[in-house]
Fold this protein.
Amino acid sequence: MSKKGILVIGSSNTDMTVKTKALPRPGETVLGGVFTMGAGGKGANQAVAAQRLGGDVKFICKVGKDIFGDNSIAQYEKEGLDTSGIFRSELPSGVALISVDEHAENCIVVASGANGDLTEADIEASRGDLENCGILLLQLESPIGSVLKAAKIAHEAGATVVLNPAPACPLPEEIFRYIDLFIPNETELSSFSGIPVADIASAEKAASAMQAKGVGKLIVTMGSKGALICEGGPSVFVPAHKVKAVDTTAAGDTFCGALCVAVSEGKTLKEATEFATAASALTVQKMGAQNSIPFRKEINL
Ligand code: RIB
């Protein structure tokens, strides 16, 4: 990998999506509309976003020795991603069951399968890439021990380590000092900081609490409102584009992939956030995860 390269380590899923009028409540059956199947997984979505938006990207994940795994690798190769570091597992490939309602909100259940088998030994085997990348982008759909080990190796080698802490789960405090850029949404930030986040003032307070734990900078994604950049001084708010959303799946993933591309090009965090905001505004206007991720030429920035 080149020192400008973006290494994404994370999940690869096959998404099975049904659009429905309203998301089911516990015990309820709702009749949905059209069923679609496509490539997903937070790691894969972020890698594909970074690749389509102009990054030099390598993606490391673990898939099963099954048709879903074969199809996913073939798809990543078609995208132009470097797939030479992908591992295979005896476990089935990851699958996500997704419902999307008429307000574009979703509800996702993931059967992690092979994603949960990305071991610390696999991360050790990837040491060369971790020590040579410019940016390491991580999420939390992989085993935490492996995420921690990857973050530590890349940090010690001088890479910029970016963590999108989704889905939120308990993390060892040690990891925070390896994170240069933390990209949570409001719910995730509340959960990691212990401070309820409802607006810019509470997000700033929670961001400071994370910085006290060792995190470098934060970008708090605030859905259709926008994103808040907390670099230590006064925070900067970048408003979201006003668009008609049909499916918010992978909007956060597009944001993270786009952000890393812009940072790898030397853009400021404000410029990078504007770029990421424009990219995710396009994602929410189409159904599906990787199906909805835009290409660089679609962004006028
Ligand atoms: O962030 C969206 C992704 O979450 C989906 O593609 C699904 O696979 C789950 O991992």
Q: What stands out?
A: The longest strand covers residues 13-19. The chain has a mean pLDDT of 97. The chain is about 35% helix and 20% strand.
